[in-house]
Every structure is written in C-alpha cells, then in structure tokens.
Amino acid sequence: MECKVSQTKLVEYYYQELSQEESNRLREHLLLCPVCQKEFTDLVKILDNFEVDSNIEKSTEFWVEFREKVWQKVSLYKLWGNSRAPWQILNPLRLLSAIGGGLFVLLIIFTSIKIVEERQQVKGADTELAQEWELIENFDLINDIELIEDINVVDQVEG
Amino acid sequence: MEGVLIEKIQGGNPVAFTEIIEKYQKKAYYFCLHMINHAQEAEDLAQEAFVRVFKSIKNFRGHSSFQTWFYQILLNLCRTHLRRRYMLNRVTFNFPQNTEFDERGQMSIETIIPDKSWGSDPGKVMRNQELKTALAQSLDQLPPQQKEIFTLKHFLGLKISEIAEITGNAEGTIKTHLFRAIKAMQVKLKDFREEF
Asked: Which of A123, B113, B130, B146 is surrounded by the fewest CB atoms within 10 Å?
C-alpha cells in the first residue's frame, strides 16, 4: 500500500470505517512504514484530545428541564398552530422594526397632509387675490359712477 | 424498535415522544453546542428541533431512518442560525477560559477540551491551557462544511454513509472534507506536537 493512499485512509481507520480487509492491509503497512506510523500517531493524539462528552456532562435536572421546555414549546404549537405566538412576533428586534416602520408611515402621512394644506392655502390665497384684483379692476368704474352721480348732485345744487 | 416508537408518536402518544426526546436530547444539544459555540442558543435550537419533529412527524414516511431525518432538521436549524448570526454580525472569535460557560453562555475551552492530567508543573499547566485554546480555535476556524462534517463524525459518532445521507453529499466528498479538516487542524496545532 502506497503512503499517499494509506494517509487518506488513516482517518477512516481511526474511526473504524474500513472493511476488515482494508484494515488488515493498513495495519500491515503501518508496521512497516515509519512515516505513516508517525502520521497516525499525530492523528490519534489530536483526535483523542477532542473527546468531550464525558467532560461536559450535564446534570439529570438539566435534562428533565430540557424535556419540560420541549413540551412547553409543543403546547404552544398546539395552541397557536403554525402561526407564531404574539410574544414570538413581538421580539425586541421585530418590535423596533415595527415601531420604526410605523413612524415612517406616519411621517409620510403627516408630510402629505401638510403639503395638501399648503397647496390649499396657496390656492385660497390665489382666489382672494383674484377677487381683490377683480375689485381693483372694477374700482374705477364704480368710482366713475359715484363721481358721475356726485357731479349730477353738484350740478343740481349749483343749478 | 424505533419504528414502533415513531408510529406511536404519529398516533399521538406523548410517552413515545418523551422517549424520543430522552434518546436524542444529549446528542442534539452537544451537536448544537459544538456547531454554534453558545450554550443557551444550543439548548434553544435543540429544543426547537424536537418541536419541528412533533410538527412534522405525521409527514415522516420512513424513507430514511429517523436518526437521519432528525439530524437533517438539526443541521438545517444550525445552518439557519449561523447564517442569521453572520447577518447580524455577531460572530465571536474569543475563547473564554476556565469557566464552563461565560456570562453570555458561550462554551469555554474547558468544555470543549477535557482536562488531562498534566501534573502540577505550572509551565505544563500554562502550556496545556494554550493547547486547549489552540484546539478549540482550530475547530472553530474550519470552513463551515468541514466543521459540520467533523462534528457529525467525531462528536456524534455517525458513519460516513450516514453523514453523506444527512448532508446530501457523496461519501467521497465527506471523506475528503473530514481528511482536510483534520489536516487543517494538524497544521494549526503543529507547535503543540510535543505536548500531546
């Protein structure tokens, strides 16, 4: 067995994933090849240092509580079905986004109302101006009539 | 045996569901813990996986084993969680030391790497601490796919064929990723060869 091939097989050998025949061939190779022996020793040392579960074993209470929590969540699912419960929807991030979105919409509505009001004011001012202008335009005529009337009065008095 | 249990759960038997939780809770929790390196989030994710099982158990037809199906759910939850965490830019690379979990619930070095007997030599103890940090970092710094495969293989003790089924990759791909993951960790830990 060539070293390149055997080195890729070392991982499988460590995890006992090789067939009996392959394991025997690799074992024979390891006995003869110091390079692969060293490689396998390094591999074992590293992988053995990752043994963990016994060291982080949780207490029995932890697992009892774990199961209780699963059942609580399952009960919520039974209660709310596939839709989310209100407190799931209203988590802080979503709540902030919702408030931000709401404020943005309000801002748009408020701005729109203000723009409409301003336009109406301008339109009203235009109407008033137009009315005043009409008055001004007609002013001379009215004055003239009054003047004519006044002249008539003066004439009558003088006459 | 497990098939009967699944049928009972499908029939609405709560005792059978509790049995399934009991059977898989440790593996689910430790898998999540190694994947996301955060105790509270790992617990939540593992619990969520069981809720998903409860929700979808009626659709389980037994085309694959329950174990494969369950780990697929778990793996997808972890991937989604890590993606979301990445999006929120909350990825942390610091490794708290000497406590099982820090105040944020992150897994410590002691938790990832067990304490071996190194005697009372202060130099060796310090060197051992450095080694633990390096081991944890080497695992955490693996590309996501390699980390997934290494965790499924080493910490859950699944067969390569099972990992291939869970991840939807060919067995050859799994072997390659596993080999590369271990090689990458060996390179990162070359300074500690004498310590082992």
From this structure: A123
